[in-house]
Batch of 3 targets.
Target 1
Amino acid sequence: MDILTTLSPLKKAQARAYSPLTLAFLGDSYYELMVRQRITLEHNMSANKLHLAAVKKVRASFQAAACEKIAELLTEEETEILKRGRNAGGAVPRSSNPAEYRKATGLEALLGWLLLIGETKRAEELFEVIYNS
């Protein structure tokens, strides 16, 4: 049973009612799960090496660059959700570049929103572009 498909999707208006940072909270875990699953399936190696490989794909700088890669593929609505996440504010870790961190938050908000509305296929399409970039 796939946990991502057992929940009833929300209507777009319901999902829009969530704050961008709440969407990013969900999208962050969803994105990391996709990265970890892909890396595990591609490489049978120690957990430490898997972790190091995953960190490269989940860091803010990689996600910020990913936003540029998928920008042309997004619908107007998806772009609006990404921008809401990017502009949401919130504390930026000292280890991160603020601009990159905000773009990464936008990406995570978009993925969280897609998950909430049941658009996992669309999220996976975007993830393929991101992961392979």
Note: The mean pLDDT is 92.
Target 2
Amino acid sequence: MPALAQPLPAIRPITDLRTRLNEVCEQARETQEPIVLTKNGSSAFVLMDSSAFDEQQRRNRLALALREAEIEQKYRPEAIPEEEANERMAQIFASWGLTYA
């Protein structure tokens, strides 16, 4: 979804936590969206339902894993057969005067 199409976040003064805590918590639970809490007119904290937060973290981990897989596929050289890997390791060890088992 393009950034411009996302809904605006809910914004509430931080004093609502003291005066309307149940209402704020219910809003977070119902909307499953973060609520920006402001202090002196500036954003100070973000309140979010824990299940929505867990889901957001899961999506972030999946997106990161997919991105890492894309990068690895793009830049990782082709896999080599085990025999060839063993031969290369034996050559490296031999250059050090050691035996590769």
Note: The chain is about 55% helix and 15% strand.
Target 3
Amino acid sequence: MISVDGDTSTNDTFLVMANALAGNETIAEEESEDYADFLEALTAVCTDLAKMQAGDGEGATKLVEACVTGMDTKENARILAKSVICSNLTKAAMYGNDANWGRILCALGYAGVSFDPEQVDLYFEKDGERILIYTNGAAADYSEEEATKFLSGEAVRIVAQMHMGEAEATAWGCDLTYDYVKINADYRS
């Protein structure tokens, strides 16, 4: 089960179950072509559903994807990606189309994973293009206008290249909007 915002509810639950009632042959060998095909298809469906759930948050205006690459372990990459996605300040910056690399770096920093911030490169990606916003311990030379265009669509991809290894992980979430606060402030149980 996944949770979009850490607060699990029935509207952000996805379950996969099998009962063998279809009568299909069991795919038992992990090395088989059938197993690989099934795994690829299931992964694609689960990824698409996770993105749809994340981007469809209450009051959300965009899907935010945080991809941490070049990390020493998969687990550390996961922790860092989730820290960026769960950061309310990063989510608010994404809503405001603000290329505030400091909020992203801060979220990486309080994740509890050791890294050298002077070795990190931060990018925004959109439609196959990429803009570098932070490198060598400081802001990169980028156009604020161009960065705003990268952040203005229905989906934003933040890439943190850590330069520590080959592991990577991706997490999905959404921006934090006035409507989210209003919806949840007006809610009564």
Note: The beta strands are 63-71, 121-126, 129-135, 138-139, 155-161, 167-174.
